[in-house]
Amino acid sequence: MHHENTADHHIPTEDEPSVPEIEADETIAPRPEEEVADVLRAEPDVEDHSQHPDA
Fold first, then answer.
1. Does pTM top 0.70 for this prediction?
2. pLDDT for the residue 8
3. Are the C-beta atoms of 5 and 11 separated by less than 8 Å?
4. Distance (Å, rounded) from C-alpha 18 to C-alpha 10?
């Protein structure tokens, strides 16, 4: 049986966004590196990164 509006072939209506929102699975604990990245992103990086050290 073939369904044209399955998740893989869903055609959004006029009131739906063309890109579906991602639903976070809140039953899965965040990985430790995600928490570290959140802390590092808490303050903006204003350092000049235009000069790259010679490799």
1. no
2. 64
3. yes
4. 10
